[in-house]
Amino acid sequence: MKRKATKELPARLPLKREPTHPGEILREDVLPALRMSVSQAARELGVSRQLLHRILAGSAPVSPETAVRLGKWAGNGPALWLGMQQAFDVWHAEQALGAELERIPGHAA
After folding, report:
1. Does some domain include residue 68?
2. Could you give the number of structural domains in the chain?
3. Is residue 11 part of a domain?
């Protein structure tokens, strides 16, 4: 079997600014629109008030379990919340790795 030559994948355009943490969306948009306190939202979501406060502050990630809860609660599904968290996490990982990423070759599968 002949093997294809590998090509370097085109570089993805880096995001210039930090993606919004999903907790900021909850804090600035969702809770005010619902006129709901953190305590009430935490009760309805079945999570501790402390966890929800950490998410709202951007100091705790939205886990898959929390994304499922938020998706049901907000009516928009878990993928939205996980996608926002993933974008936030990947951006921070890229910033942390910096120039090291430039030394890693890309290969087409």
Report:
1. yes
2. 1
3. no
pTM for this prediction = 0.81
- Rounded to whole angstroms, the Cα distance separating 34 from 74 reads 10
Answer yes or no: is pLDDT of 1 > 90: no
Residues of the domain holding 89: 22-102
| Sign of the C-alpha dihedral computed for residues 42, 82, 27 and 57 taken in this order | positive
**Quick check: is 70 in a domain?**
yes
Longest Cα–Cα distance in the chain = 64
Q: Is residue 13 part of a domain?
A: no
The secondary structure of the chain, three-state, reads CCCCCCCCCCCCCCCCCCCCCHHHHHHHHHHHHHCCCHHHHHHHHCCCHHHHHHHHHCCCCCCHHHHHHHHHHHCCCHHHHHHHHHHHHHHHHHHHHHHHHHHCCCCCC
Name which residue leads in pLDDT, 108 or 59. 59
